[in-house]
Amino acid sequence: MTPIELRSKVGADGVLTLSVPVGISEANREVRITVEPVEPVAAKPALSPEQWKQFIEETAGSWQGEPLTRPEQGDFEVREDWT
C-alpha cells in the first residue's frame, strides 16, 4: 500500500471526518492513522490603498499578446413574467 498524506480540517463540533479512497485491492486491510496538527499558514497582509494603486499602475496595460476580445454571448432565454 502506498502511503497517503492528506490534510483535512476538524469540524466546529471537534470531529475529524475522513474519507480516503485507497482502492478495492486494499479492502479489508488494517491501516495506521496518525493525526497531528499542522501549523497555520500565515495570511498575506492586505495591501494599503497606496500599494494597491501602485500595483495597478505597474500592471495595467502590460498585456503583450493578441488583443483581448469578448466572444459572442448568444441569445438570452426569454422567461415567463412572475408578476
Key features of this structure:
83 residues, little secondary structure, 1 helix, 0% strand, extended
Structure report:
The mean pLDDT is 88. With 83 residues, the chain is low in regular secondary structure. It has one helix at 49-59. The chain has one helix and no strands.
How are the SSEs placed, and which strands pair?
Elements: H1 49-59
- Which range best describes the helical content: under 10%, 10-25%, 25-40%, 40-55%, 55-70% or over 70%? 10-25%
Largest beta sheet, briefly? none
Mass-distribution shape: extended
* Helix/strand order: H
Radius of gyration: 25 Å
- The strand count comes to 0
Q: Which structural class best describes the helix and strand composition? A: little secondary structure
Which band does the percent of strand residues land in?
under 5%
Number of helices: 1
Low-confidence stretches: none
Look at the structure and give the mean pLDDT.
88
Q: Report how far apart the termini are.
A: 62 Å
Q: What is shown here, in short?
A:
The protein has 83 residues and is mostly loops.
